[in-house]
Amino acid sequence: MVQILPKLKDPLAVMPFLLRIQTIAGLWGDRSQRYRFYLIFSYFCFMVVLPKILFGYPDLEIAVRGTAELMFESNAFFGMLMFSFQRDNYERLVNQLQDLATLVFKDLPAELGTYLIEVNKRVDRSSKIYCCCHLSLATFFWFMPIYTTYSAYRAAANSTEPIEHVLHLEEELYWLKSRTSIVHYTIYAAIMWPTIYTLGFTGGSKLLTIFSNVKYCSAMLKLVALRVRCLANVKEEKIEKELNEIIAMHQKTLDCVLLLETTFRWVFFVQFIQCTMIWCSLILYIAVTGFSSTVANVCVQIILITVETYGYCYFGTDLTTESFGVALAVYDCEWYKFSISMRRNLRLLLQRSQKPLGITAGKFRFVNVAQFGKTRFSEDAGDLHR
């Protein structure tokens, strides 16, 4: 089979591909380079936010589409802005994950190291596939409006009918007459090239940052559970020391989850607010004007942001499941055969692992599939009741 994606150079490294992307954006590495993200955010405000707010829209349908676009695009940028404010917590999180990975590869049984290597490879491969797909979609999104517009001009060379210019983003880009002048449209399309790729890069960075870190914390909890299950194979004179080390590893993993929750709680809060706002804008527009082609365009954005939100909930559920997996491993480890001191330590580990663990949206509620379903169904039930 032909190798298309670049191989993972160091299978023992923790999220190396993600950290390289974050270094490009100024969100990792040298602190003196953190201005890069704020330049990216300023570019987004200058090229997207200000034109949409200051220059308005020619009619209601375009206004609805443009407003939905603004909320959809702001979701990634303002989420990453919230993330940038938590740089110190994020650095502590990654450093602790790296310390745990070093412990797994150096001091623990080979099967645990093999599992973590597989996680590293899977996260790296998935991240690269996602980036390739994201880059392809950004290229398609930039190219197709240009192709459609110029094809319409070639087809209507001898016609006096006005040609509709297909815009990449529904906005009046300052004083460019991109809807009527082909020269201005060409300038607009050239400006949209870095803009579209900036939007794609920031949105992709946000998803990879969240998914990779949540998955890695889940993997560490899985390793704790696997280590508990291996207690039966430890020599009797070393088993109490091994249990103490497991408890210490579990505590470090809990610290990682706490840092994860602290780092991303406001990112998830922004995500759910934006998702709710886009849903409300769609319902309001349908109530006022009925169904149209504009509704279909907005629905695409709604589907994307809803799937993204569900993805966060899915990984949040996986984190909670792995945390309870530690408790299940303790219960199944034939604890009644151990000494009294061992059973006391196992009870401590069991109590810690039974506490609900996960990530929250602004400290209001857990981000998981159950809460996602409750939210959707409760809204539907409320609409039916009214």
Helix-strand pattern = HHHHHHHHHH
The fraction of residues assigned to DSSP E strands is under 5%
Radius of gyration: 25 Å
The shape is elongated
How many H/I helices? 10
The main pleated sheet reads as: none
| Helical/strand content category | mainly alpha
Mean pLDDT: 81
Q: Which spans have pLDDT < 50 for at least 5 consecutive residues?
A: 376-386
Question: How many domains is the backbone divided into?
Answer: 1
GO cellular component, one term: plasma membrane
Membrane topology: Multi-pass membrane protein
GO molecular function, one term: olfactory receptor activity
Subcellular location: Cell membrane
Q: What does this protein look like?
A:
By secondary structure, this protein is mostly helical. The protein has one domain (16-374). Helix content is 75%, strand content 0%. The protein contains ten helices and no strands. Helix 2 (35-54) packs antiparallel against helix 3 (60-84), helix 4 crosses helix 7 and helix 8 (293-331) runs antiparallel to helix 9 (340-354). It is elongated, with a radius of gyration of 25 Å.
